[in-house]
Amino acid sequence: MIRTRLLRVDPACPDPGVIEEAAMVLRRGGLLAFPTETVYGLGAHALDPAAVRAVFAAKGRPADNPLIVHTRCPEEAFALARALPEAAVRLAEAFWPGPLTLVVEADPAVPRETTAGLPTVAVRIPAHPVALALLEAAGVPVAAPSANLSGRPSPTRAEHVLEDLEGRIDGVLDGGETGVGVESTVIDVTVTPPVVLRPGGVSREELEAVIGPVREAVPAAGEAPRSPGLKYRHYAPRARAVVVRGSPGEIARAINQVLETGAGPSRAAFLLSDETAARLARRPERLFLLGGRERPEEAARRLYRGLREVDLPGVELIVMEAYPEAGIGRALMDRMRRAAGGREMDAGALAQRGFEAAGGGGETAP
Ligand code: TXA
Ligand code: MG
């Protein structure tokens, strides 16, 4: 158990003294969580193998899942690459600083702890004033996975980091709530056309406007996923979760049914759009609003917080409303599906088969 220090900064005007204190933790090989525009990251000196090993230990992260290296400028990021495809340069110009991670061939200077032994390294420049100030002050590249215990939803607030990692890391730089709410898009630019390994804050539409067609990573049966992180069950709440598709009217009808048949009011929890919630016969005890159905960026910003807030002892089922799959809606749906372990159904099926069929009741295997 170590004492985890909470360092507060105003994101609009980060205090240089506090930033310097945080940067010192990183330079000395310590672990420091900090806000980015996507989610909080758990930072460590990316070129210090012992510091990087400590990140894996603190999170309980499998050693074969590599980390993203954060830098303050493209020059520093590209210094970690052995080769620079043109797509990398164009994407960096268009989206950095921002929620885009580029997978490039790794320079031998990057320790194998950081790349998990892969010949490639993932790099990005975060668009958050606190993260940028910290990277500037640290003067070293910073490896940072999301600052959650492995398998838990990513943190969008400093409180979430403390929930998971208090006593396991040296400090948290609290810069308030993050903006995008889901992680960066990860794109492999070592191949042509580039492959999106993880949908995220930059949409496929935005990528294609800059470099033309990209592919999405869909591993064939038996084939290893190209991004090691994709094979782990992620963003998992303790309760069982299900994604429900349909119009707000259809989903509300199904939920009214579920609440009448079987689900005691506290056994099920709901993450719903405002439109659907407004159509419920009565307000469930555990309801988290994701915002308007037409505003997927708001739902993305709120999803992880919602999962943490409704995932309470006694809750057996979390029902999440599916959003349209365009723009950031793709990343949103990717994260919802992972949280649900792939369980998904139409509102009609939920209405017909009810709480137990959706996975409530806790007995059925995934
Ligand atoms: O928004 C984000 O990307 C946040 C913030 C903190 O920057 N970070 C984040 O890191 O989400 P993490 O570790 O939770 O997810 C990194 C993902 C994993 O799926 C990992 O497998 C993949 O990036 N990745 C890292 N290096 C890779 C590489 N060399 N090749 C393929 N995938 C890689
Ligand atoms: Mg993560």
Written description of the protein model:
- Strand 13 (268-273), helix 10 (274-278) and strand 14 form a beta-alpha-beta unit.
- This protein has helices at residues 16-27, 49-59, 74-78, 86-95, 112-115, 129-138, 158-165, 204-211, 248-260, 274-278, 296-310, 329-339, 347-357, and strands at 5-8, 32-35, 40-45, 68-70, 100-105, 120-124, 142-143, 171-174, 185-188, 195-198, 215-216, 240-245, 268-273, 286-291, 317-321, 344-346.
- The radius of gyration is 21 Å and the shape is globular.
- It is 34% helix and 19% strand.
- The protein is α/β, with parallel strands linked by helices and 366 residues long.
- The structure holds threonylcarbamoyladenylate and magnesium ion.
- The site of magnesium ion (MG) has 3 residues, from loops.
Keywords:
single chain; 366 residues; alpha/beta; DHBP synthase; Rossmann fold; 2 domains; 11-stranded mixed sheet; 5-stranded parallel sheet; 13 helices; binds magnesium ion
Summed up, what is this model?
This protein has 13 helices and 16 strands.
Low-confidence stretches: none
The whole-angstrom Rg is 21 Å
Architecture (CATH level 2) name of the largest domain = Alpha-Beta Complex
The largest sheet, given as strand count, sense and whether it forms a barrel, is:
11 strands, mixed
Query: Into which percentage range does the β-strand content fall?
Result: 15-25%
In total, how many beta strands?
16
Bound molecules: threonylcarbamoyladenylate, magnesium ion
Number of self-contained structural domains: 2
Q: Structural class, from helix and strand content?
A: alpha/beta
Terminal CA distance: 34 Å
Question: Percentage of helical residues?
Answer: 25-40%
Q: For this structure, what is the CATH class of the largest domain? A: Alpha Beta
Shape from CA axes?
globular
Overall mean pLDDT = 92
CATH superfamily of the largest domain: DHBP synthase
> What's the total helix number?
13
